[in-house]
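Appendix C. Worked example: Protein BatD
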Amino acid sequence: MKLRIIILSFFLAISTISVAQVKFEAKASKNKLGVNERLRVDFEMNKDGDNFNPPSFKGFTVVGGPNQAVSNSWINGKRTYSKTYSYFLAPTSRGKFTISQAEITIDDDIYKTTPIQVEVTSAVETPTDGNNSDFVASENLHLVAEISDSNPFLNEAITVVYKLYVSPLVSVSNWREMDSPVYSDFWSQNIDIRQLKIESGEYQGEPYRFVVLRKTILYPQKTGELEIQPLALSVSVDVPSERRDIFGGRLYTTVDKTVTAGKRDINVKPLPLANKPANFTGAVGDFDFEISASKTKLAATESLTLKVQVSGKGNLKLFDLPKLEVPSSIELYEPERIENVRTDLNGTQGSIADTYTVVPNQKGNFPIPALSFSYFDLSSKSYKTINTEEILLEVSSAPANSSFSAGNTINKLPVEATGKQFEYIKLSTNLRPINSGPFLGSALFWTLLSLPIAVVFLGIVLGKKRRELTNDVQGKKIKKANRLAKKYLSEAKNNLGDQKAFYIALERALHNYLKAKLHIQTNEMSKDKIDVLLQDRKVDPATNKEFISLIETCEFARYAPSSSVTMNQDYEKAAATISALDKQL
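Step 2, the predicted output written as structure tokens:
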């Protein structure tokens, strides 16, 4: 009996400890608010769960949320986890209301929050949450990753398009990339976006403006559950405030928000094993295959080219072409790879080819064996094989003057003397002596004697001046920045106040600086190419990123409202960035 009590007590203690480890609670931003204010309710847990079920929020209207935030950290070897669902509520009337229990399943157990009592009073004179700039920015700015297919085959192309949605209630004045997406286990290629374009669309049924920030083609290289890490941006959002200027125009408040597209999971299916050809090397798509010869009738020792080519749409860069085989009496050189492909949202398309140089050494008829190429066709979800025809080379005898003629003898032409090969030798001269006076006391003597003294004196003066200039580091930086700013940014400075003209001039100044400094043409260059170019010149990554950010700001700000303060900040930032870039280049 005593043993049974001890065992029950032990299991009860274990269960009590495990229950105590799970925390799930509700928190309200306030317990008393005006009918014209907003209430924030957070449901927080310290362990991830499933089947989250929020309360009905009787007496309130959900105006925002659920917003999800996850925090996961390790401190001194101890893991701390937190996950929060946030809702923004607007009262429907005055009175006392109860926010009932939320439910979630954690480790097959159901946990509930404690109800919260909230009192709604009459309207207050100055709402605190209803016009909160941070809240308004959060509800009117969204970063979305649109994936063409989340369940592709191995080596099937999928596209990821990142769009930034902005509500008409706010505007974006600037943004920069904080964290780039990671495509582990994918072959990826970005599609150049030459200029950002503002478009109209819908987000969750509401009218929004959006801009496409990035387009990427992905070819999965593994099967199973693959993960795409999110893109994160820091965005400066101009939110309208209740204040107005002397002309009655609404004043804007700038809020810095961090938005992320969220992690995405891709389930990659393996290619079928049934009926898989033995010569299959991983080609997936829709292809044509052919072998062509530059000529089929030639003399021995003459050369010709044989081209093995695959064309069509699919993973053109991710498989091997069939190898050409020739008879032993034909000399075959290593092939030259020729790629003519382009990548867009429809995938990679074009052609790849191996071009062989072939030289027959003997007379006769020589067959080039047929080749076969296999690929997986996505439309029929089956393997297809294309076979070429045999190519017959008709080789005649070698020309008489060829180095490969009978006996492998080489006919050498005799060298004929013209009788003029020694014309450059002069047979007569016209020499005369040089008459000169005594060197001591001459003008040249005194010049050479005084020259070292003059050089020492000049070196002292120049050294002193150089030390003065070296010590004035800050002055040099200011002068250099002002000189570069005046040279390249004068037009932009003259257009401060005119948003569109200012950002057009600022973007032109940035391109003109690169054109003058690196001796390149930037009119047709994308931001990615400029980024690579600056990396090749060993430019500091922070300066490089700031320069690209300025170009993106110019493209984006021409279509969105911007304050004079923001334009002045962008002008100062451009001057500082050009100065820093000039120093490194």
